[in-house]
């Protein structure tokens, strides 16, 4: 298993709800789009702005909600012109069931249980995910977080992974 596959699995298990690690990868361009001031980091505010834009892009019928079908269509469109940029590791992780379906992603944020996401639910899910992936709690994400887990972070990540695996 490569580091990239492990990272995709970890991101999926940690919630992977709004912006996957692969989606923020610097070579994908989304990191640069979200890093509005070009400082090499995504702040809490930049992440929130990106989540708002993502919700607007997914809500194709503009009813104020995102369904699994809309999320699937958004994801397909995002990868359509990128050829094989998703990469073998990401595809292998998805095939192995380590990446969540759109319905599962929605379920992790759908606080009222109606099977779709409101803007408020999406924003709250994005904020929660930001908090989970901001491991040093400095209020920003760097372009390196996607592909690396530093040694001091591993015990806590391993503990969360073990707990999730034990829970089934």
Plain-language structure description:
The structure is a single chain. This protein is mainly α and 168 residues long. The protein has one domain (3-167). Helix content is 57%, strand content 6%. It contains 9 helices and 4 strands; from the N terminus they run αααβαβαααβαβα. The strands form 2 sheets. Strands 1-4 form a two-stranded antiparallel sheet. The protein starts with a helix and ends with a helix.
The percent of residues in helical segments reads 55-70%
Uncertain segments: 1-28
Provide the residue-averaged pLDDT: 74
Question: Structural class, judged by helices and strands?
Answer: mainly alpha
Q: What's the N-to-C terminus distance? A: 21 Å
Query: How many individual helices?
Result: 9
- Portion of residues in beta strands equals 5-15%
Number of strands: 4
What form results from the Cα inertia axes? globular
User: How many distinct domains?
Assistant: 1
Task: Specify Rg, calculated over alpha carbons.
Answer: 15 Å
Q: How would you classify the quaternary structure? A: single chain
Largest sheet: 2 strands, antiparallel
Strand order of the largest sheet: 1-4
Query: What is the string of SSEs from the N terminus onward?
Result: HHHEHEHHHEHEH
Topology of helices and strands:
Layout: H1 3-14, H2 21-24, H3 30-34, E1 41-43, H4 44-58, E2 65-66, H5 68-80, H6 87-95, H7 102-109, E3 117-118, H8 119-133, E4 140-142, H9 154-167
Antiparallel strand pairs: 1-4, 2-3
Concise account of the structure shown:
The chain has 168 residues and is mainly α. It has 9 helices and 4 strands, in the order αααβαβαααβαβα.
């Amino acid at each position: 298993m490569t580091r990239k596959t492990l990272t995709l699995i970890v991101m999926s298990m940690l919630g992977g709800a709004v912006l996957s690690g692969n989606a923020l990868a610097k070579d994908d361009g989304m990191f640069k789009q979200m890093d509005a001031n070009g400082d090499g980091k995504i702040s809490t505010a930049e992440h929130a702005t990106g989540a708002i834009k993502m919700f607007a892009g997914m809500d194709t019928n503009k009813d104020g909600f995102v369904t699994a079908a809309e999320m699937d269509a958004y994801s397909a469109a995002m990868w359509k012109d990128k050829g094989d940029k998703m990469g073998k590791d990401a595809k292998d992780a998805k095939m192995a069931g380590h990446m969540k379906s759109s319905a599962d992603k929605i379920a992790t944020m759908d606080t009222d249980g109606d099977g779709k996401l409101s803007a408020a639910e999406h924003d709250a899910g994005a904020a929660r995910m930001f908090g989970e992936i901001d491991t040093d709690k400095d209020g920003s994400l760097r372009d390196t977080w996607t592909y690396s887990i530093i040694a001091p972070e591993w015990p806590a990540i391993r503990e969360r992974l073990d707990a999730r695996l034990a829970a089934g």
